[in-house]
Amino acid sequence: MGRVEEKRSNSLFEALTEVVRYRELLLSLGTREIKARYKQTFFGIMWSIFPALATMLIFTFINKLKIIDIESGSIPYPVFAYCGLLPWTFFANALTGATTSLVSYSDIINKIYFPREIIPFSIIVSKLIDLFIGFVIFVLLALYYQVKLPVTIVALPFIVLLQVIFVAGFSLLFSMANLFYHDVSYIVTVSIPLMMFVTPVVYPIKVNSLQWYQALTIFNPMVPITDAYRDVLLFGRWPNMQALSIPICLCVVLFIAGLILFHKTEHLFAENI
Amino acid sequence: MSSSSTQYGVEAHKVWKRFHRGERPTLLSDVIPYFFRRLRHKESPISSKTFWVLKDVSFQVKKGEFLGIVGHNGAGKTTLLKLLAGIMKPSRGSMKVNGRVSSLIIAGAGFHPLFTGRENIYLNASIMGMRKREVDKKIDSIIEFAAYGLPEYKKFLDTPLKQYSSGMLVRLGFAIAAHVEPEVLLVDEILAVGDIGFQQKCLEYMNNLKKKETTVVMVSHNMIHIANYSDRVILLDEGGVVLEGEPANVVGVFEREMAKKMNWVGVGNVPANLPKGWASLQNVQFVAAQRIENALYFDYGCPIVTRFDYNCLLHPLDDITFSLSVYRIADGYKCFTIFSHMYGCSPQIKEGRIELTVASHNLLPGEYVFDVEIQSLRSGIVLAVHRERKVIVGNTPHYLSQQAHGVYQPANIAWSAIP
Fold it and tell me: Which of B15, B13, B84, B87 is nearest to B54 (CA)?
């Protein structure tokens, strides 16, 4: 893990290989994140599933009371809602955590060199572990409601990977911007609940809804991603590649742009914290 | 890479580093007027607020060499280390580091208070670039290091760090940092950590580094450490290299500069109630063998010549004696006193010049106060005093624990086994 200045360049390839070289650090910071969160708690890791379960229960209750009427087809509503909450919880938690990550690691950034990408990425790793636990709960829930899990479930890793790239791109940009302007973390905290309303998390997005609402969903990659989760986990449909093609391009471009920009400004971090 | 570049562990070539002074406006209500001010005044007000922390710094450190960096606070030493560590980049120029870098500045970076000592070892080590397999192998050694002279320490390894004392934290941080085995090590004022027992362990570690041929760049305000370990010393002042060379030489110049700036005449408390006007000491010099100028640093075992002018109005003159006393600064221990009358030297005239040669004082490396006095023998009254701080340097086997080894090393020692 030597730092031979001559061999360092600003190329994208370099940025990626450095991250790969430090993969052990990535994992150990990721597990640190998880472990630290549940130290000195009674319920421990279970806290990673309670919030999503609570949201699911609330909406199930609202739906039961017919306060709002959500049509979930043949799928029992709790399973339908929880399936949408899986990617949403991951997205919301990873992005909020990653945005403030560089600032909260400022003492380390000021003292030691390692690729800074590791820091927001380690937050994503920790939330991925949460996602996995959430997935186990989902399987139990499906068993309880006697929902048969379709074969298309094998396509899940692909959807998760796409979502990780999407979240990683935003995390790089936001965490970096947040170093210079702490407003970014406030903006993220405010925007995420708003964004939930234009994402089919607890209800499907109807084709015949208002035009401006439709327009909002088009530019939201979380819409096709959430739909893809439901497709492969509940409906037994393969991911809708046509709907996903634009988000895929968007995610990849965002990720590459984020990585390059991050790598180029990395050396300014220590001075600007 | 050519062979000429690989012989160096560190190469700094015309390094400049600029910092901003003052707070950059971020608030909307500050940014807008700031923006208009900039428009009106053409030249950006930022430029007036920047300053150079490092100015055209160039140096090389050969592989296995130990470079010391000294200078006042704010001279740019820590910035230089940060550039070497890759935390910042130079504004101009280039900084090359060949090989795995680690630094003791970071001891304890990323410690988590809720994690146990053992968990933190793994965490911290991975931040410092160690692999898990490597830590598995070294963990016993790390624990031994941290628990040096403090066996109860091991009982705390599975206790969260929040229960540790600050000294225990420092021990753990240093122990991990000491096991990174870098090719280039950066040290920032770390040797003053922990209790005396642990400090010894740290010094022992520094000594082992020399054997392992690690390239070291050390910043310290402890001139004894700098002089003892460094092969070469750089003096930084206001961001530039002012002097580079032999440790004793550079350190000596720096200390004299400091003494001048601080208007520091002598050391210790010269008795305030000296009878005035009876005698005086002038032009006191402590000179190393074969040198002429007053020295602050003396090599271990080097003869020391003391010279001074005296002026004495007290009669009879044979009641007067001169003396040189040496006190150890660490504990105020009086190492010895040499009276002139015991060596048959008393002043014959009211004023004159005296020279005292101590060929083998055998003082161990450390800081001392040299104290020259004029005294009345019969009354025991001290008439004039001159005190100066002096440092004996040297990398002798005894420097590790000065106190434990006593004051001096007797000459002409012969150990042998009797058959």
Answer: B15
**Predicted confidence (pLDDT) per residue in B219-234, tens digit:** 988 777 788 788 999 9
How far apart are the C-alpha atoms of B250 and B134, rounded to whole Å?
Answer: 40
Question: Could you say which of A28, A39, A112 has the minimum Cβ distance to residue B123?
Answer: A28
Residues of chain B contacting residue A107, judged by C-beta atoms under 8 Å apart:
109-110
Average pLDDT, chain B: 82
Cα separation values, A119 from A28, A113, A171, B93, Å: 11, 12, 10, 29
Give pLDDT, residue B191: 60
The pLDDT value given to residue A7? 43
- Alpha carbons B376 and B315: distance in angstroms, whole number: 10
Which of A36, A267, A270 is closest, CB to CB, to B114? A36
Determine the distance from the C-alpha atom of residue B148 to the mean position of all C-alpha atoms in its chain, rounded to a whole number.
23
Residue A270 is nearest to which of B82, B105, B131, comparing CB atoms? B82
Tokens of A166: 């999407």
Parallel/antiparallel/unpaired status of strands B101-103 and B92-97: unpaired
Complex ipTM > 0.90: no
Task: Report the candidate in B139, B94, B92 with the shortest Cα–Cα distance to residue B118.
Answer: B139
Q: What angle do CA B334, B338, B341 make, to 5 degrees?
A: 145
**pLDDT band at residue B299 using 50, 70 and 90 as cut-offs:** confident
Which of A220-224, B65-69, B94-98, B381-385 is least confident?
A: B381-385
- Give the pLDDT of residue B266: 41
Q: What would the two tokens of residue A237 be? A: 């449909």
Cβ atoms B188, B108 nearer than 8 A: no
Q: Is A154 on the interface with B (CB under 8 A)?
A: no
Distance CA B175, CA B189 (A): 16
Strand order in the sheet with B8-20: B50-62, B8-20, B92-97
Q: What residues of chain A lie within 8 A of the CB of B18, using their CB?
A: none
Assess contact for A262 and A172: CB atoms under 8 A. Answer: yes
pLDDT in tens, A168-219: 999 999 999 999 889 999 999 999 999 998 888 888 877 666 777 777 777 7
> With contact defined as beta carbons under 8 Å apart, do A179 and A105 qualify?
no
**Is residue B380 classed exposed, middle or buried when 0-12, 13-18 and 19+ CB atoms within 10 A define those classes?**
exposed
Name chain B contacts of A111, Cβ cutoff 8 Å.
85, 87, 103, 105-106, 109
Pairing of β B279-288 and β B304-312:
antiparallel
Interval B27-45: pLDDT, tens:
777 777 777 776 676 555 5
